[in-house]
Amino acid sequence: MSRSIASQAWDKSEIERAAALGRDLRAQVGGDARLFAARAPGRVNLIGEHTDYSGLPVLPVAIDRSTILVAASLPSLRVTLRNADPSYPAREFVLQTRIPPYPAGDWANYVKAAVQGVIDHFAGRGVEVGGMSGAAMLVDGRVPVAAGLSSSAALTVGATLALMAVNGLDLPPIETASMVARSEWYVGTMAGGMDQAASLLGQRDHALFIEFDPLRARPVKMPSDAALVVADSREIADKSGKVRTEYNRRVVECSLAARLLARALNLVGVRVLGDVVRARKEWNTAALVEALRRAAPERLDPDLLEASALLDAPADVVARDLLGEGAARIALDPARPLEILKRARHVLSETGRVLEAVRALEEGRLDEMGALMNQSHRSLAEDFDCSTARLDRMVECARGAGALGARLTGAGFGGSIVALCRPADASRIIAALVRGYYVPSGLEWQDACAVFRASPGASVIELALD
Ligand code: GLA
Fold first, then answer.
1. What is the homologous superfamily of the domain 228-238+373-452 according to CATH?
2. 383 in contact with ligand 1, CB cutoff 6 A
3. Which residue from 90, 114, 202, 372 has the fewest beta carbons nearer than 10 Å?
4. Does the beta carbon of 350 sit less than 6 angstroms from any atom of ligand 1?
C-alpha cells in the first residue's frame, strides 16, 4: 500500500511513534535496511457478543488506540522481537513449518500466531518457508491490555502485516482478515474472527456489520450525535488464563446446542448455530429455543455421554468434534454441567438484536440502539453468565448518568463496558463512573475511562527516516 494512501489513516502521534521505533530499530539492524511500520487498532464491540464463533454477525468499531510495529527484514529465518514496554521480555525464534508456541501467557505467542498464519497461508500459494526472510520487529502497543479491547488482535494483525511487507507479500484486507481470523487458536482460545476483522477493516466514524462463513463486512455510519464512552473495570480479562477456560467452555456449549438443534430439525452438516440459522430462512429465536427445549435437557453432563446418546453418535466422535484433538483439546471441568438452552437463547436473541441494531444506527434511532445494548447486557449476564458484579455496577452507573445504553464489551468475565450517549453527556457519564465505581473501588481512573472514536483499520507503510 502506498504511503500516501495508508498514512491518511495514521494520526500524527502514530507517525511519531513509528518514527521513534524506526530510529531505534535502525540502530539495531544497521543503516540501509528498508523499514516498514504497521498500525493496527483495537476494537470495541457495540453489539453481537459471543456470536462470532457460532458464525453469526457482530457490530464492532475499530478504536483510536493502536499497536505500532516496526520491522526490517533479516538475512536469515530469525524473527527477533522487542517491546517498547520493558515489562515484555525480548524474544527470538525461527521461521519454520510448525513453530512451537512459548508457554501459555507469553506475549510473543501472538506474534508467533501471526507468523504461523502467514506461513500456512502462503505455503498453499507456493511460497516456501525456507525462501522467506525473517524480521527484526519492535512493538509499541497502546491498546489497553486484558481490558476486552483486543490488544492481542492488534499485535497479531500488526505482526502479520509487517511480516508480509518485509517479504513483499500482499493480500486484500478481507483476505488478510480471513487468514488471521483463527489466529487465537494458536494460543489455545477457540475465538471467532471478530477482533481481527475489526482491526483490519475498520473505517473512520463507522461501525462494521461483520458476517461470517464467508467473512464479509459492511460499514455502518456512526450518527454524528452519538458518542462512545469506554470504561475498563480493571478486572483482568486475560484470555490466556481463567477467561480462556470459560471462553472455550462457551464455544463447546454453543456448538453442542447447534448439533442438538440440527438433529431435532433434521438438518445435516451443522457445526455451529449459524448453520441452523442459515438453513432456516424464516427463523425466530422463540421457535428455535422451543425446539431445543423439546429435544434435550437444559443442561448436560460434561462427560458428553448423554450428549452422544441424544445425538446418536459414538461418544469418542462427539468428544473429538466438540473438544478437538491432541494438545489443543479443550478440557472441561467435570464438576460443572454444560448449559445448552441458556447459551443458545443468548446467541440467537443476540443475533436478532444485531440485525435490529444495524437498522437503528443507519436510521439514527439512538434510543433504540441503546435499548438493544441494554438487552444485550442482560442476556450476557443472565443467559451467558459472562458478566461480573463490577461490570454490572459500571453499566448501572453509566445508565444512571444518561447513557442511552450500556453493556459489557468483548468476552466479559472482566474487561470493559461501552456506553452509547449524546456527545454532550459523555463527561457526565465519565464523572459518574469515577464517583460510583473507580473511587469507591480504590482504582485509578485516568487512563481507564474515555470517549473513543471509530478509527480506520490497520495498514502498513514504508518508513522514510530523515
Ligand atoms: C473475544 C474473542 C472474539 C469474540 C468475543 C466475544 O474478544 O476474541 O472472537 O468471540 O470475545 O464476542
1. GHMP kinase, C-terminal domain (3.30.70.890)
2. no
3. 90
4. no
